[in-house]
Amino acid sequence: MDATAWQSHTVRGFLAGLKKKGTQVDVLDRVRQVGPNKVGARGSYSVYRIAG
């Protein structure tokens, strides 16, 4: 998101499209912050690697 100034849903959609076309997309790290009542909280993020 920082490199492209895209919003998170746009980045996730782009990665899903790459994966659908056969490009290997690996999740390197997934950090989930949990808010009250086990509801997702801001600060959660995932780190991906695109194998070229």
Characterization of the model:
The protein has 52 residues and is α+β, with helices and mostly antiparallel strands. The protein has one domain (8-51). It is built from 1 helix and 2 strands. The protein has one helix spanning 8-20; strands spanning 24-31, 45-51.
Strand content: 25-35%
- Helix/strand order, N-terminal first: HEE
Give the mean pLDDT.
86
Largest sheet report: 2 strands, antiparallel
Helix amount: 25-40%
> What is the global morphology?
elongated
> Uncertain runs with pLDDT below 50, 5 residues or more?
none
N- to C-terminal separation?
Answer: 19 Å
> Would you count the extended β strands for me?
2
Tell me the domain tally.
Answer: 1
Gyration radius from CA atoms, angstroms: 13 Å
Cross-sheet strand order for the largest sheet: 1-2
Helix and strand content put the structural class at alpha+beta
How many helix segments? 1
Key features?
1 helix; 2 strands; 52 residues; alpha+beta; single chain
Question: Secondary structure elements and their pairing?
Answer:
Blueprint: H1 8-20, E1 24-31, E2 45-51
Antiparallel strand pairs: 1-2
Summarize this structure briefly:
With 52 residues, this protein is an alpha+beta fold. 25% of the residues lie in helices and 29% in strands.
